[in-house]
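Cross-check.
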Amino acid sequence: MTKHLLRGSLSFPVFLLVLLTFSACKKNKEEEPDGAGNTHPVITSFSPAYGRENTLVIINGEGFSKDAAKNTVLFSNNVKAEVVSATATQLKVKVPAGIATGKLSVSVNGVSAQSSTDFVLGPKAGFSFVATTNTLPGQAKMSFTNHSDNALTYEWEFANGTVATTAVPGDVWYYKTGKFNVQLIARNGNMADTIVKEVSVTTDNSLTAYYMFNGNSNDAVYGQHGTVSNAVLTTDRYNTANSAYSFNGTSSYIRLPDHLIRNTGPATAISLWFQAADPSASGAILGYQNAGVGPAATSTDFVSAVYIGTDKKLHAKLWTGAAVVMTPAEEANTDWHHLVLTGNHSGQSLYIDGVLKGSTSDPVDNSLEMLYNQLGVAYAGGVWPKVPSTPGWFYFKGKIDDVRIYNRLLTGSEVMALFNE
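Predicted model, tokenized:
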């Protein structure tokens, strides 16, 4: 009897010990991440190494929970990320808003691990624009403001033939009505972000061609590019290299697209800058006629529209049926000068450096088939005053820049605005 009592009294403590051991093992099992044998999360790598809000980042390592909700992922500034999916060795998370460059961490069951490298906040491109006050005829001015974040360099494309690499491009000119897709690329090292916005521009569409001569003879308005023959790029009135063309006085000219002047219609304006290298050497700055330029070519209809005559004075006239020109009293010199020749059915005017220097009631007549037009040479002779006595090609020696052609009359205030540009 005693023996049986002793055996029964020993069985209860043994049973209690087994029960406690089983409970402890079960508790430890529940504390482990699902499917992982390591209770401590470890981050071995993540990619990409940079990004911005909503970038999907893959974190590799071990000790993660298979239950996405049991993983807490923090980026810099202790900003919590959304865990999209989870395994014991990989987490996919979305970058939250409001972070900065810094380490990221993963916490599971109160135990945390931190990355050894920073997640880098990438650049974000952004800009705004607004139309600003403009006094230049036929043009529109837009002002651009850069709102990019975390960027070091910038690449702008304004869809008008111009680009910029400055943070603040400021005012940008457009030369016709239309919609333009402006692009900004914001960069920070190897990281980049691009934004494109549509910019709507309104002008009076009076500017039919604009030759800036910034490295080439291209037209900034409708792509009616000039063809250079023996003229060379040179410094402009601001002494900026490759920003004007130099003409040698014997063979240099730039052919403009056929009918360019004739197609302006009954109202025309020509604006340009010029510098005579030798005022005693006469020559034509602009001409148009019914034959192409060439040593053997002759013209029966021709206009020496702007030229320095054998009297060392400037002469100008659009065709009216007669070659009675407008001539300022001053002789030409070697300074840079701005010229505007404009007219319509009521008459013509000549401005030099913003000042009216001549006018006539003779109307503009663009009805003749004078399809060839060029800078730096004209066919001269016959009825045109103060030109060489032998008819032929009449070459200019000097520089020409910023040539604009309009299909309307320019006012005195618009001429002054062009001179003061």
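Residues 1-10, 12-37 have pLDDT under 50 and may be disordered. Residues 231 and 247 are 5 Å apart (CA to CA). Passed to J.P. for a second look.
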